[in-house]
Amino acid sequence: MTSPVWPPYAHLKTQAPPLRVVGGEGAHFKLDTGERLLDATCSWWCMIHGYAHPRLVAALREQAGELCHVMLGGLTHAPAERLATRLVELTPSGLNHVFYSDSGSVGMEVAMKMALQYQRLTGKPEKRRMLSLMKAYHGDTTGCMAVCDPEEGMHQLFAGLLPQHLFAPAPRAPFDAQPHQVEADLAGLRQLLERHHHEIAALLMEPLLQAAGGLNMTSPAYLRGARKLCDDFDVLLIFDEVATGFGRTGQWFAADHAKVTPDIMVLSKGLTGGYLGHAATLAIDRVHAAFIGDTAEHAFMHGPTFMGNPLACRVALESIAVFEEEDYLGKIASLNHILRRELLDDTALRAHPAITDVRLLGATAVIETHTSAQLEGVAAFARKRGVWLRPIGRWLYTMPAYITTEEEMTRITDAMKTWFLR
Ligand SMILES: *Cc1c(COP(=O)(O)O)cnc(C)c1O
User: Fold this and answer.
1) Is the pLDDT at 153 greater than 80, yes or no?
2) What is the DSSP-derived secondary structure letter of residue 342?
3) Neighbour-count burial for 244-277, b at 16+ CB within 10 Å, e otherwise
4) 267 alpha carbon – ligand 1 mean position (Å)
5) Is 176 a catalytic residue?
6) How distant is the alpha carbon of residue 324 from its chain centre?
7) pLDDT tens digits for 352-397?
8) CB within 8 A of 215, min separation 6: which ones?
9) Does the pLDDT value for residue 159 go beyond 90?
10) In 3D, which of 296, 261, 265, 262 has the Cα closest to residue 279?
11) Cα of 271 to ligand 1 centre, how many Å?
12) Which of 51, 100, 118, 137 is catalytic?
């Protein structure tokens, strides 16, 4: 019997039937077969506290008894107000205004609309294109597809439908690059800005870690250089921290490594600890102030039904509280230490002919191979070892929940290594 559920990113003819999950606890989820699988991906990088975290579950229960949902048009409520205040406190200084939506993709759509309208409201209506990067992934909605990598990305099929934006080469200098080593990467940005700044509303990027486009990592020096270029060419800087936000790169936000404030910043995935879909698009005063005016054009015409959902805001507040009270940055540093020891320092692994690179940043590690064929069967292989791995293309990675223990982390890295070193 075939299921009526249409699975994501799936080739329907060849896709193996999905595993049936009945519950979860900590870094594991449980299948109807009785198996417990250790989740190396924390469910597309969002379940940062793992499954069934007692405090997050209790917060949801409590909020459900008070108010599950109310529209944000003309109304407000304590969870939305308190979360916005917390986000302003936690994010780089200057990001003082919070626009809610219900997913990372929509959060990015909001960011792009905001940037374009800002330019129009400040007398530069010809600035309406985006400058993105190769290897970028910003979501699957139409506006987002148009700023994903147009060659290696997964949306080539829709090229004819999409607005034509500009793409700079993906940065190549690694995380620990010195300022002079990012010059070539910045030159790629500068070239496009010199030629096209008059028509560019914003430069957008996943800071430090281009995630779904191949876990490409770059340096804080690149972010600082990009910030300066945006200032020089009067272009807004948008950080898509949907994947990097909430600890993934080792700081609260990737922007913190560079001490850079973007003009607009988007958060989702880890925002609610993964317990509900939600997103926040934050803006600096200058952007927000441009929307204060007398004409009909000054209104920002966006308002997702579920923006500021009380359950989502309440669980996000609890997630942030746990993150702070239980020293998650310390936990992430420990995971980074284990990943370094088990993967980066393993010379046999790094010398393996199938492998082109092993990289690491915060609680993220990736083994890059020549072709995706070299990873065919790795999920079934890992399952036999009690681990849930799901590579993206030719990238075998882990982005574990931050509560993953040392024993669990090494079980994940062992599954990743043994696939090659059998
Ligand atoms: C996942 C992701 C998105 C899209 O978020 P959804 O909630 O899946 O719409 C956007 N940008 C980045 C960097 C992401 O990793």
Assistant:
1) no
2) I
3) bbbbbbbbbbbbbbbebbbbbbbbbbbbbbbbbb
4) 9
5) no
6) 20
7) 999 999 999 999 999 999 999 999 999 999 999 999 999 999 999 9
8) 209, 359, 364, 366, 368, 392, 395, 397
9) no
10) 265
11) 12
12) 137
Question: Is 124 considered catalytic here?
Answer: no
For residue 265, the cross-strand partners are 239, 282
d(CA 128, CA 169): 20
Each as own residue / partner, the long-range contacts of residues 333-339 (CB below 8 Å, 24 or more positions apart, any chain) are 333/250, 334/406, 335/363, 335/400, 335/402, 335/404, 335/409, 336/250, 336/360, 336/362, 336/363, 338/406, 338/409, 338/410, 338/413, 339/363, 339/365, 339/398, 339/409, 339/413
**Entry pTM:** 0.98
- 127 in active site: no
Q: Which amino acid, 304? A: P
Indicate if 9 belongs to the active site. yes
45-86 pLDDT per residue, tens:
999 999 999 999 999 999 999 999 999 999 999 999 999 999
82 is in an annotated binding site: no
The pLDDT of 125-137, averaged and rounded, is 98
Q: Which of 357, 381, 141, 183 lies closest to 268, judged by CA?
A: 141
Contact assessment for residue 137 and residue 210, using Cβ atoms and an 8 Å cutoff = yes
Per-residue pLDDT of 243-275, as tens digits, reads 999 999 999 999 999 999 999 999 999 999 999
**Residue 353 to residue 416: CA distance in whole angstroms:** 15
Residue 400 among known ligand-binding residues: no
Q: Which among 316, 315, 312 is positioned nearest to 69, based on CA atoms? A: 312
Q: Quick check: CB of 104 below 6 Å from ligand 1?
A: yes
Say what the pLDDT of residue 1 is. Answer: 59
390 annotated as a binding-site residue:
yes
Look-up of token digits 């992934």: 137
The residue whose CA is least distant from atom 5 of ligand 1 is 104
Q: Residue type at 5? A: V
Instruction: Determine the Cα–Cα distance for residues 13 and 272; give it in Å rounded to an integer.
Output: 34
CB atoms within 10 A of CB 361: 23
Assess whether the C-beta atom of 240 lies below 6 angstroms from ligand 1: yes
- Residue 422, classed as helix, strand or coil, is coil
Rg of the chain (C-alpha set): 21
Q: Does 103 sit in the ligand 1 pocket, CB within 6 Å?
A: yes
- For the segment 134-143, the average pLDDT, to the nearest whole number, is 97
Give the mean model confidence (pLDDT) for residues 103-121: 98
Helix axes 310-325, 328-339, angle to 10 degrees: 70
Instruction: Give the separation between CA 264 and CA 108, rounded to whole angstroms.
Output: 10
φ and ψ of 360, to 5 deg: -155, 140
Question: If DSSP codes are grouped into helix, strand and coil, which group holds residue 359?
Answer: strand
